[in-house]
Specification:
mainly alpha, Four Helix Bundle (Hemerythrin (Met), subunit A), 2 domains, two-stranded parallel ribbon, 2 strands, about 75% helix, globular
Length: about 190
């Protein structure tokens, strides 16, 4: 699988170092990003041209940061060039227009490579009702405040144990809603649990 990622412009070894040797965490983060960019990214040249220059810079800067963290070397190099054009006062919308279809195709191929990779299944430790309630209460507070990193940390904890007294499908729906940044849906699911 690493070889396939390298073919797609992703330095898997560098990424694994960034993730402190945690390959599974790297794969999870990469999968989340490529799914998100494919569904929520600015994917058309017309859409990007309607953005304010500062919004365009922030968007590119954010993408640049994520691609650097995930060691997506090829994409990161292009995004650095695009961001520099904005800093130079001459935003290169056309370069982004050329870049994004190739990037989306790379994201699609990356997702395909990742989904063919199977992580070894582990038996989950049983969690207590009190522990789950505390995690859901914390998650609710983070959702209300829009604290993405903290929300992700809680969903990771929710996924590491089995919660026999809660509807597993509902816990999964809450976590999936958080992954999709659909905080309203996640809150609704918590309220109905």
């Amino acid at each position: 699988m690493k070889e396939r990622l390298i073919e797609l412009g992703i330095d898997a070894d560098d990424a694994i170092r960034r993730f402190n040797g945690k390959f599974e965490l790297f794969i999870k983060s990469l999968k989340k990003f490529v799914k998100d960019i494919s569904t929520n990214g600015v994917t058309s040249l017309n859409e990007i041209k309607t953005m304010d220059t500062e919004d365009f810079r922030k968007y590119i800067h954010g993408l640049k940061g994520v691609t650097a963290n995930l060691s997506m070397i090829t994409a990161n190099t292009k995004l650095i060039e695009i961001e520099q054009s904005i800093k130079d006062g001459n935003p290169d919308y056309e370069k982004y227009g050329t870049f994004i279809p190739m990037f989306l195709e790379t994201a699609r191929l990356t997702l395909s490579a990742i989904e063919s990779y199977e992580t070894p299944a582990k038996a989950l430790e049983a969690g207590s009702e009190n522990e789950c309630s505390e995690l859901l209460t914390q998650l609710k507070q983070y959702l209300i405040k829009g604290m993405a990193r903290e929300c992700e940390a809680i969903t990771t904890k929710l996924r590491t144990k089995s919660w026999d007294f809660y509807d597993t499908a509902q816990i999964t729906e809450i976590c999936n809603a958080v992954d999709a940044y659909d905080y309203t849906k996640a809150l609704e699911q918590i309220e109905s649990s």
